[in-house]
């Protein structure tokens, strides 16, 4: 029986990268006698079931001791009560060993983790940036506080269950392990009657790359001045294989959808490269992006606070600098 359970997530038939990162985080905290199971929920029509089994195959190569699949048509679309019931069914099957539950800090993970923790009587850690096992057996989790200005460390003892969500892009994803893949088994599930039935999911139009998991983000602020002004930013993002983000100033001005907002009241991102165009760098914006690995700021005001967190600063007009970057990339 597994002591660590990673709850993997598929969206639109694709395994989310953060699930591999959660596996790495869990593996980094294992000690003698621990074992790791990856739990995958999904199902639906033939195509959905095929993508669940493809995802299970990918997960089995990343070094868990087993992959457990709960495949049921009702799990094809996220509904909190039903997905929670599936997790509780797994918890019952894996009790009493299952102690550490790892989820991605995604919209679904954020919704499920506290529900699961409450039902298991477990402790909960949200949005973990790091996790390490101490010599005394406790696992110490690091989280950001006060809009990223401070870090706290919380230690959890192994005895009682703990539910953790890990921030995307903070752990290197678990690599493929040589040797035979882990066994894949399935767990039967009788869904309870649910008060919520999800009949359809209508998505807002968004770029090809998911903002929360993007390795490169080109973000625009009020300095972009219009919705049309975002076109060169989108072009640069597409060239770099990245995603477009925005400040709240740009969203409030109606230049782009709030789904792109980064910051305290928007998404938290940790890309390898964050290019801020026409963003002043208000503390609420920094809260969502200041842990990016490399920050490039393009702003025509040399005193703009964004330069205080930037690794590279370009003082200039974004409408000249961004096309120049695109041209340089195309010529390079
Ligand atoms: P501005 O502050 O107006 O900055 C525009 C910048 O563009 C300026 O620095 C200017 O020099 C530059 N510029 C103008 N023209 C050009 C040009 N042609 N070329 C280059 N540079 C140019 N904000 C967020 O972003 N995310 C949040 O989640 C968030 N949550 C908030 C929560 C609360 C409770 C509150 C009170 C505020 C929140 N805000 C948030 C708002 C935040 O305080 C700022 O108002 C907002 O971030 C400003 O957006 P901005 O930088 O795009 O606009």
From TrEMBL:
It holds the Pfam family ETF_alpha. SUPFAM superfamilies: Adenine nucleotide alpha hydrolases-like, DHS-like NAD/FAD-binding domain. PROSITE patterns: ETF_ALPHA (PS00696). Residues 4-200 form the Electron transfer flavoprotein alpha/beta-subunit N-terminal domain. InterPro entries: DHS-like_NAD/FAD-binding_dom, ETF_a/b_N, ETF_a/FixB, ETF_asu_C, ETF_asu_C_CS, Rossmann-like_a/b/a_fold. The keyword Transport applies. The keyword Flavoprotein applies. Keywords: Electron transport, FAD, Flavoprotein, Transport. Belongs to the ETF alpha-subunit/FixB family. PANTHER family: ELECTRON TRANSFER FLAVOPROTEIN ALPHA, ELECTRON TRANSFER FLAVOPROTEIN SUBUNIT ALPHA, MITOCHONDRIAL. This is Electron transfer flavoprotein subunit alpha/FixB family protein.
């Amino acid at each position: 029986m597994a002591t660590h359970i990673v709850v993997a997530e598929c969206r639109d038939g694709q395994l989310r990268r953060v699930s591999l990162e959660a596996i790495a985080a869990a593996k980094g905290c294992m000690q003698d006698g621990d074992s790791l199971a990856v739990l995958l929920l999904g199902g639906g029509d033939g195509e959905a079931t095929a993508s669940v089994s493809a995802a299970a195959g990918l997960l089995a190569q990343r070094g868990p001791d087993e992959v457990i699949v709960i495949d049921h048509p009702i799990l094809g679309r996220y509904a909190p009560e039903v997905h929670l019931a599936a997790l509780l069914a797994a918890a019952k099957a894996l009790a009493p060993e299952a102690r550490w539950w790892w989820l991605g800090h995604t919209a679904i993970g954020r919704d499920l983790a506290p529900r699961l923790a409450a039902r298991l009587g477990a402790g909960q850690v949200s949005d973990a940036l790091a996790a390490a096992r101490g010599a005394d057996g406790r696992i110490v989790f690091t989280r950001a506080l006060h809009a990223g200005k401070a870090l706290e460390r919380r230690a959890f003892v192994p005895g009682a269950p703990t539910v953790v969500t890990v921030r995307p892009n903070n752990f290197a994803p678990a690599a493929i392990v040589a040797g035979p893949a882990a066994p894949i088994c399935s767990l039967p599930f009788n869904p309870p009657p649910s008060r919520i039935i999800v009949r359809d999911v209508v998505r807002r139009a968004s770029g090809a790359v998911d903002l929360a998991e993007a390795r490169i983000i080109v973000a625009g602020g009020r300095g972009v001045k219009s919705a049309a002004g975002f076109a060169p930013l989108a072009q640069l993002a597409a060239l770099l294989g990245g995603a477009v983000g925005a400040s709240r100033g740009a969203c409030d001005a109606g230049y782009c959808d709030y789904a792109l907002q980064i910051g305290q009241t928007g998404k938290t991102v940790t890309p390898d490269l964050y290019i801020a165009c026409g963003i002043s760098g208000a503390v609420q914006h920094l809260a969502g992006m200041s842990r990016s690995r490399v920050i490039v700021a393009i702003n025509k005001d040399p005193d703009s606070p964004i330069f205080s967190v930037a690794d590279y600063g370009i003082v200039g007009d974004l409408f000249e600098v961004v096309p120049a970057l695109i041209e340089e990339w195309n010529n390079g």
